[in-house]
Amino acid sequence: APTSYQVHELLWEEIRKLHARGNLQGEVNQKDVWKKPVYGVMSTVGSGQKPSDTNIHSFHGVHRVEGVLTILDEGCGIGKALYPPADAISRGKNDRVLVVANPDDPQAPFGDIFLKPTQKLDGTEMWNKITVSAFDTPNFTGEEVPDVVKESLIQKDWVEERAQEWGVESGRYRSKILGEFPDQSDNSFFSQRVIDTGIETDIIEDYENPLKL
């Protein structure tokens, strides 16, 4: 993921909870490593990390006969340099790469993957691209899920409020509600992701420091 906080406090915290709840094999430690016995030896079966955006060797040497699953969370925020290493450890028959992201920035590497043709030598698509809109989720479709899931997922009233606040034609609505990349030309000065970050950032006023422009 783009930050260590997202890897450790969010993703792997959920993995630790699910591991304990499901009474799964092995142990998941606070270093975001999952180990379990393999032929009598404690072996790593999963790990989480946030390498430097320029560390192209961060994933090298990871191989498993059974296959390697590489998950990139918040894919729009992950630098271009980290996509080739993720691909490099996914060359085996059973290897896969899963990228999960909000479609905020069409000029990000994830935007290139999703919006530009990426075909294999046989003409088939290299990536299986799946778009999930708010209207595809259980609170809109009526799919039966536990209450705790319903309460955690996007709510109808929130979507209606955002439609009024942002407008259904806005880039923010397309990205956050419809799960689609906003219309944006190559010479846009600010990407939708940067605009969203600006809107969502609270600035704490500090009257002790001088203002510098």
Strand and helix order: HEEEEHEHHHHHH
Number of extended strands: 5
Residue windows where pLDDT falls under 50 for at least 5 positions? none
What is the strand content? 5-15%
Mean pLDDT: 86
Could you describe the largest sheet, including whether it forms a barrel? Answer: 3 strands, antiparallel
Strand order of the largest sheet: 1-2-3
Based on helices, strands and strand pairing, what is the structural class? alpha+beta
Short characterization:
The protein is α+β, with helices and mostly antiparallel strands. It is 31% helix and 12% strand. It starts with a helix and ends in a 13-residue tail after the last helix.
Describe the protein.
The chain has 213 residues and is α+β, with helices and mostly antiparallel strands. 31% of the residues lie in helices and 12% in strands. The protein has helices at 4-21, 83-88, 109-115, 138-141, 147-152, 156-166, 171-176, 192-200; strands at residues 27-28, 33-38, 41-47, 69-73, 96-100. The protein has a three-stranded antiparallel beta sheet with strand order 1-2-3, covered by helices on one side. A two-stranded parallel ribbon has the order 4-5. Strand 1 (27-28) and strand 2 (33-38) form a beta hairpin. It is globular. 15% of the residues are buried. The mean pLDDT is 86.
